Amino acid sequence: MDTIFAPATPPGKSGVAVVRVSGPRAHEVVRALAGDVPEPRRASLRRLRDRSGAVIDEALVLVFAPGGSFTGEPSAEFQLHGSPAVVARMRRVLLEEQGLRLAEPGEFTRRALENERLDIAQVEGLADLIEAETELQRRLALRVFSGEMRQRVESWRERLIRAMALVEAVIDFADEEVPEDVSEEVTALLEDVRAELTREIEGVRAAERLREGFEVAILGRPNAGKSTLLNRLAGREAALTSEIAGTTRDVIEVRIDLDGLPVTFLDTAGLRETDDVVEAMGVRRALERARAADLRIFLQVEDEVFPELRPGDIVVAAKADLRDSREGVSGLTGEGVDRLLDEVKEKLGRIASLPVTATRERHRQAMQAAVAGIDRAVEEVRQGEARLEIAGEELRAVVASLSGLVGYIDVEHVLDEIFSRFCLGK
Ligand SMILES: Nc1nc2c(ncn2[C@@H]2O[C@H](COP(=O)(O)OP(=O)(O)OP(=O)(O)O)[C@@H](O)[C@H]2O)c(=O)[nH]1
């Protein structure tokens, strides 16, 4: 096993730059640079020197014993002064004098997984945590990272195994007339697990939105004031506005942190029949994006109707500043914008508040397969004693598919997907 190292902090100037080292030779490297190996987990100030004795930097050194490190290996962290020159010097010493290898993106985490310090769902949570930009994303990622998936899988497994044991007891003692009717208890256990899985599956879409961001499309006639509203939301001139109808032709996106909800607002071409080929393409694209969006805001100029309107969408009067009633929203003056945002928050927040741990398509598929397997098992049990053996087989497959959610084995393709997005030093 190679001993690897990587800067854990981004390149550039900073107060402190952290360089991590992990692998069998980590402590030996600390001794070579710092003169001794400080007590594990105690921050110790040391003068780091290269082989010639020249000082590299004065740094805090943190040593971790194999059982108590992130990777599960002997490891160490050097907290250097955050200058590009210090980090470059350190890097050269570790590469050339100590013969270490620069870690690949995600390699520390991969080792943590291989040493069973983390399960695969936690690795997914960690990836999301590093990517988290908003408060709700952080909370969701932390829940997954903290190992909640493993707890749930464990509780499903226990009940499934109990059901399997009951089924097998009947099979084993078939000749001895032990079998009282177990089908009721088995079915109850299975229905229980099934209900929880279904709830998780229903939450995946919401969790995915939370991870990747919600889309809210702004729609309406040309000149309704869509671009002006978007710019108001963005706090900058993201979209061109003009008194000429048909100004916006492509979809313009603005990403906003709406009290923890990651929301992308889409400004779209005004909806109208047009002979202009390019504008018509814009209208078509607007409608496509609006269809896929999580929520649509229709800016209403008069009392036109919107065939694209769906339940839950928002219709709001445009250019409130020109109206006697002052109802609606005005991108120009900002009137009604907070009210509109509250409504958006309320609607998206409802989607985002489901208490799920399943956050990815991979989880959904495994759970869906488990539900299908449970359904087949329940059906076999219903068919009577002769079919119990098949029911048992089904349940074994269900357990396997749920174990895969947190499994340590068979995860290569999952890892490649996750680690391709990891940053260096994690
Ligand atoms: N009084 C008033 N004028 C507005 C408001 N919003 C937009 N306008 C004006 O209406 C005109 C059209 O605004 P845009 O924001 O470009 O409208 P749009 O819906 O994006 O138009 P298209 O890109 O053509 O679809 C511009 O002259 C704006 O200054 C508003 O809230 N109040």
UniProtKB/TrEMBL annotation:
| Binding locations of (6S)-5-formyl-5,6,7,8-tetrahydrofolate | R20, E77, R117, K426
Location comes to: Cytoplasm
CDD domains hit by this protein: trmE (cd04164), TrmE_N (cd14858)
**Entry superkingdom:** Bacteria
Where mainly found? cytoplasm
Q: Where is the TrmE-type G domain?
A: 213-349
GO terms of biological process kind:
tRNA methylation; tRNA wobble uridine modification
- Which cofactors are reported in the record for this sequence? K(+)
Metal-binding as UniProt keyword: yes
Q: What keyword terms does UniProt attach to this protein?
A: Cytoplasm, GTP-binding, Hydrolase, Magnesium, Metal-binding, Nucleotide-binding, Potassium, tRNA processing
Show the GO MF annotations: GTP binding; GTPase activity; metal ion binding
Query: Where along the chain is Mg(2+) bound?
Result: S227, T248
Under PROSITE patterns, the record lists:
G_TRME
Family to which the UniProt record says this protein belongs: Belongs to the TRAFAC class TrmE-Era-EngA-EngB-Septin-like GTPase superfamily. TrmE GTPase family.
Q: What is this protein called?
A: tRNA modification GTPase MnmE
Gene for this protein? mnmE
